[in-house]
Structure formats: C-alpha cells, structure tokens
Amino acid sequence: MTQKTSRRSVLMGMTALGAVGATSAGTAFSGPEVLGKSSMVSDTVMPKKAWDAVVVGAGVFGAWTATHLQRAGKKVLLLDAAGPSHVRASSGGETRMIRSDYGADAIYTKMSLASLDEWKHLSSGAGLPLFHGTGVLFFFQKMVDYAAATIEVHKNLALPIQVLDNTALTTKFPQVNFEGIEFGFYEPEFGVLMARRSVQYLVAQFIKAGGTYKRAVASAPHTGGHSLDVAGETVSAEAIIYACGPWLPKIFPDLVAKRLFVTRQEVAFVASPTNSNAFMPGQLPGWADFNDGNLFYGFPDIEGRGFKIAHDKHGETFDPDTGSRRMVESSFDTLRTYMNRRFPALTGQPFVGDRVCQYTNSSNGDFLMDKHPDFESVYLLGAGSGHGFKHGPEVGRMAADMMLAGAGAPVARFSLASKETHHHRTVI
Fold first, then answer.
1. 54-69 pLDDT, tens per residue?
2. Neighbouring C-beta atoms of residue 65, cutoff 10 Å
3. Whose C-alpha in 36, 73, 158, 235 is 20 to 30 A from the C-alpha of 325?
C-alpha cells in the first residue's frame, strides 16, 4: 500500500536549515584519532575566550555540529587528530545507507527525513555525488512487530511507504531470490551516501565559509570546562563539544567507558558480473534483509567499488587504535553462504575488497547528546551505534541547539543517564 503525503507536515517544527556559506579559508586536512589525556590545568582565571565553540572530532557528528554552529554565527574551531573521516574513523569508508523505516522509533524516522533533505542539498553543490538515489528495500520473512510498527509510524506521520508482496518483489527485483520472503518495504526517495567524501566536502565548505579546522590532538577539558590542550597549547572557548566516536571512552574513561561499547564491524565487496547490469544502481537498490532478526544488508555496485555486503552483527570489543583492520576468513564464508542463497547470480564472483571499522554502541542503540555532568560548558556527542551516519545533519542541528541554549539532552533517551552498562540493542 502507498500513503499519499508531503514531508512538510513531518518536518514542521524542526529548525529550518540554511545553505552553507562560502568565504575565507582554513587549515588543510589530511588523513588515527588518538586523543590526549585530561589536563589538570585550571581555566577559571583565563581571560576572554578565543572561540565560541571548539568541536573535537571531525566525523559526521562533529562536522555537522560545527556547520550548524557556524550557521548560527558562532566562531568555531573544528579539530581532528587524523583528518575528517580518516581510515580509522567510524565515518570513514565509501558508503552508508539512508532509510526511514525504524519500527516504532518514530524519532529516527523524523530525523532521517530532515537529514535526507540536508544531504541532497549538500550533494547538489558538490563536484561529485554525495547521495545516490538508488532507493532502499527492506524485506521480511513474515510480519513481525518491527515491520508492523514501521507501517503504523508512516501512517501516523502521513508518509509514503511502498509495501510489496513476494510476487511484486520478484517482478521488480529479479536478481534477488525472495524465497521465504513474505513482503518488503521499498523507499524510492532514499539511497546511498558517500561517507568519506561527504564529510570531507562538508568540512571543506565549513572552512570556505570562514570556519577554522586543525588537524591536532586534543585533550580532555581543563578544570572549569572552558579550555583544553590542542597540540600542546591551551585553547579557550565558551563551550567544548566532544564528538570523538570510539575515542570518547578514552577521553572520559570514568564517565562513559562502561556505558559505550565499541565493537568490530566487517564489510566486503564482490565483483559484479561483467555481462549484466543487474547489480548496478538503477537496477538494484540499497537493501536489507531482516532475516528473522539476524540482519544482512548491502548496496549495488556504487561507482565501480563492487557489490557491498555486510552482516549487521555486533562483533567483539574493538580498540580503534590497535585493532586489526583485516576481515577474518570465517566472515567471508558467512557472507558467501548468504549471498549464494539470496543473490544466486553472484555465486562464484570473487571478493574484491573488505573493510573493518567499528560501531560505538550505547546499551540499546540510542545516541548520546548531553552535557558533561561536571561541566556546564562541555558536551558529549556520540554513540552512533551503527546507524548514526545518516542522521548526521539532524544530530548536528540538535547538538548545536543544545549548546546555544546551554541545555542538557534534547531528548531524554539521548541523555547520559539513560545509558546503561549492559548491551541489549533494540534500535535497528
């Protein structure tokens, strides 16, 4: 079924977002984010603050936060120890999916819709595409609570969603074996984001609009919360936002190390058949197989990188500085077995690449956006939990609004207090 509507009503009440400006210049960036330990230097007697805000971490959350603060007229310093979306960053790599189906979690549906408009706007001004409108297909073996709630949320928000039965799926996407699949959700307006390219372009636009970016190691805040060490020098600011992904527990070990779970995640790429376009954009959408809760997902062959496939299973605990970035052989076997069943035309096609990154998970998958409990001017931003990239624009807006208002968590479920010490993922 398809619901007729406009997104206008869903986005009503969310902050309208302007275009990124274009003036000035800043420090060039390059390509592990190892952040310094806390300093005990006091900033309570420091004079005028040099910056309105310092944002530590130039991944998708940090870069969008810096951008929104800049749009609000603030003087912002953006820092990263190894460069925007560098090779060890959670925001690194080629591609990420953007979708609106989130079960009963309507907050993420709304955030995804608002973010999609921002991503499309950003992509429209870039020399190379940042967003590929491949569409997204999410299919299910049977009607489960998650799927039923997705339909209900879209109905309540008057949002369109195409529900395709097995016959319609097989007709529309013949390269997929839908044996055992009852139905799927198809979202033609959504698709694939170019991860590294998007963040690096966003940071370049931030610099062009007069923002300052530096590749430098930053410390935890000094006593008082209005200064920190940057490459060995003291920098002062009205507010400091730490958006450091898997390094957040290293900067604040006593506060968040037991509340955030950094896990190893693997993805692989497979050569598309040379005699067929069936696995190219326009023929195959971004896809996810609920698989009775044991989710697999992937993308068509975007920009010649190969068919992407991943098992969305949280791996073992991972150190972003020292962990191995090579996929283990048993994981190739798992992906091959699944792929041979669901995408039979790829049987025998070679793997042409793999990548290991990490998720920084909260106990249930909700983001972290809150004040540091000991500093009125220090903010914590993270816990992307494997689904944060798509929401970057809206996370950045909410984080900027939080700082500008001097407030705590914008939503109770994003608070530090809501983060438990045992891992039980519920947000998918």
1. 999 999 999 999 999 9
2. 31
3. 36
